[in-house]
């Protein structure tokens, strides 16, 4: 279906077949991101990987990100760092459990994801006190909220995406609602990994049920909703 939002021509993709045409068959034709005000200010005039126009610059950015951030070798190089952050979270949860204190799991997952991302990209993690009186996370949340507010000048609202922390939270929530599945997953982890160490990236290939749980959780709660 074709619409015109102000001066912006807009195509509504309303079926899996149409989505395949736009996102796979004719992907290069529709690869450009629409310009909008918020992206100009939060991504250096739309020059980051998420908002840049398709072309040589974007391809070089993607290549650089793939080699320096997302390659198998690079991901493995951050293994110790990820383990350190996970150990800190586990220690905090154990202390809270010993004291009988309530823990905001959503906030802790959000902090974990932010700390790992900052250490990977910026080389260090930031505490709330490091960024004026608001705090680091508050400033980041404010930027995301401002980007998500529809701007009449753009004629189309920004499509917001859930974070990795929310994806983890929803997966755990689904397991808590399905004790039988949680028990099956725990048994797989106990057999494949054991009780004396934590799950490592090298274990993932043999954890078939865990992979199915992750995929089903993402199916039920996709990070980016293309079709409903």
What does this structure look like?
InterPro entries: Cyt_P450, Cyt_P450_sf. GO terms for molecular function: heme binding; iron ion binding; monooxygenase activity; oxidoreductase activity, acting on paired donors, with incorporation or reduction of molecular oxygen. Pfam families: p450. The protein has 228 residues and is mainly α. Among the domains are: 1-30, no CATH class; 162-228, no CATH class. The chain has helices at residues 16-25, 37-42, 56-70, 72-77, 79-99, 105-121, 136-148, 164-177, 179-192, 208-220; strands at 2-5, 8-11. Strands 1-2 form a two-stranded antiparallel sheet. It is globular, with a radius of gyration of 21 Å. The two termini are 16 Å apart.
Overall mean pLDDT: 80
Biggest sheet overview: 2 strands, antiparallel
Write down the oligomeric state: single chain
Structural class: mainly alpha
Assign a percent range to the helix content: 55-70%
Query: Alpha-carbon distance between the termini?
Result: 16 Å
Total beta-strand segments: 2
Shape: globular
Could you give the order of the helices and strands?
EEHHHHHHHHHH
Q: Kindly provide the radius of gyration, computed on alpha-carbon positions and rounded to a whole number of angstroms.
A: 21 Å
Uncertain runs are 155-162
Strand residues, percent:
under 5%
Count of discrete alpha- or pi-helical segments spanning 4 or more residues: 10
Spatially, the strands of the biggest sheet line up as 1-2
């Amino acid at each position: 279906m074709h619409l015109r939002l102000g001066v912006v021509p807009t195509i509504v993709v309303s079926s899996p077949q149409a989505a395949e045409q736009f996102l796979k068959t004719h992907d290069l034709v529709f690869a450009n991101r629409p310009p909008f005000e918020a992206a100009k200010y939060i991504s250096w005039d739309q020059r980051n990987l998420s908002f840049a126009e398709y072309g040589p610059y974007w391809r070089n950015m993607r290549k650089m990100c793939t080699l320096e951030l997302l390659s198998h070798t690079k991901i493995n190089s951050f293994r110790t760092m990820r383990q350190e952050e996970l150990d800190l979270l586990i220690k905090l949860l154990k202390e809270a459990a010993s004291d009988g204190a309530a823990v905001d799991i959503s906030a802790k997952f959000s902090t974990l994801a932010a700390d790992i991302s900052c250490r990977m990209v910026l080389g260090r993690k930031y505490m709330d006190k490091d960024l004026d009186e608001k705090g680091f996370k508050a400033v980041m949340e404010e930027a995301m909220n401002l980007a998500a507010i529809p701007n009449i000048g753009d004629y189309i609202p920004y499509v917001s995406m859930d974070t990795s922390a929310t994806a983890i939270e929803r997966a755990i929530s689904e397991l808590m609602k399905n004790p039988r599945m949680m028990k099956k997953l725990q048994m797989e982890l106990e057999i494949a990994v054991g009780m004396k160490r934590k799950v490592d990236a090298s274990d993932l290939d043999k954890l078939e049920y865990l992979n199915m749980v992750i995929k089903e959780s993402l199916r039920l709660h996709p990070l980016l909703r293309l079709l409903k």
